[in-house]
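Progress against Task 2.4 (sequence-to-structure conversion) is shown through the following example record, which the project officer requested during the mid-term review.
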Amino acid sequence: LYLPDHDRFEVLDGGGLPLGVERTHRYETHVRHALPAGAVIVAATDGLYEIAAEGDDARFGVDGLKAAVRTCPAEGANAIASAILEAATAHGGGVSLRDDATFVVFRLAGG
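Structure tokens generated for the chain above:
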């Protein structure tokens, strides 16, 4: 969760099994009320954070994600997603991914 008015990130970590691993698993419900207009939510698989260039241990990580989101927080979700994809691809140096890298971006209207 990115709150651009305060330039602050909050981790929304539900813990437990990843989605889809076990069909009957019961997940905890977490509720966050009153998100401000303009707030950005990014949900991603670990593969996005693990992107690294061949022979380089420096991963894209949470810091890479935060930096990408900060480049255009006032833009729509598509622009933010494009910025994340471009930054992650550049960080990986065009090397094939070793894991899935899936993410979705939500931006609350207004702000």
